[in-house]
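Tetratricopeptide repeat protein structure dump, as promised
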Amino acid sequence: MKKITTLILSVSVSFSVLAQKKELKNVEKLIKRSDFTQAAEGIKGLEPMVKDTQYESYYYFLLGKVYFGDETTKEKDYQTAAINFYKTLEVESRVGKEKYSEKAVNYLNNISDDYYKKINKFLKQEDYKKTGDLYEALYKTQPGRKDLLDLLLYCRLTSKDYSEAAKILEKSLKLLGDVSFNAVNKHTLKNNEFFKKEDRDKAVKIGTHISPSEAKVDKKVRIEYYSNLVGIYDQQENFEKEMVKLKEAKKEFPKHVPFYENYAAVIYKTGDKEAYISALEEVLELTPENKNSWYNLGVISQDLGNSEKASAAYDKVIELDPNYVNAYINKGLIIMSEEKSLIKELNANRGTKKYGVIKDRLTDMYTKSIPFFEKAYSLKKDEGVKSTLKGLYNSIGETKKAAAL
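structure tokens r here:
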């Protein structure tokens, strides 16, 4: 009884396999007649039945042809076609039997050639929007290709599609490591770059690529990705995302000064002055001779009422660049910061003994500030500085100097 049951089971399996073959042969006939709609209907639902059978690669190959179409097909689904042609190669590589692999590779090459033909056409027209759309479609047929994603990024940036460019940059930063995994495309004989080793190895295993190699990724590549991305977020005034990326960039490249400068700049735009001071101090730790950062530290400290810190910063600017006009002007203004309160106090004490003391303090303050305004005016003949100097000269009785201006 047990033998009879086994025999019946074997016969049923044989009939199932024969049924699959018959269904697939019918699909192939429909494809030859260019009846792709009926072919798609006929092949639908067969995948579970052909899984792990001798007809699995045949199924994927036919499915690829259904979506590839022929010269009569108006809209070809290259992406789905490519996915199934790759599955054909993967299955036959796994079982060690190549029946449809060569044909599948030819179809994949035709897909790639068709894309590049259209890409070259739109490149000549400098239509980077359409070129980018084609690179995006091509990338979807060959996911994992770094070189294709870089070309897509270039097109999106050139066509000023910054939202899409930002998505690509985010993706590239996640995928790109320290090593680029390369292999030569057997069809084009050009070197292709892959983000991941497994994607490169799979391309070699299924036979579309040869001569695998690896190369260390220049850190400038990731720096450029970060720089472009933060630039886009800054343009979009998406300061929150910009700060997140700059924090990541600073952590990854702790000696790359522009990331620190950009971080300080975006903090300034948010209006957090205390945080801006901290950010500037980070910049100055890396570049202690950065006169502009010292100047900005002086300005923001002066704005927050920390005259001592501001004055020290301006002194440093002048030490680094004796011709930095605004540093002299702001240094003079710091010295004169008590002018209003002293004048108010002076007016309130007319006729008292304190009046003379206060006036001497005011005159001393004017006298100390004058050299800074004189230096600024000698470097640049500015009407505002000239007017300030005239007033100061007259206030301390130097009327001849005032008239000479």
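Confidence is low (pLDDT under 50) at residues 1-15.
lmk if u need the other ones
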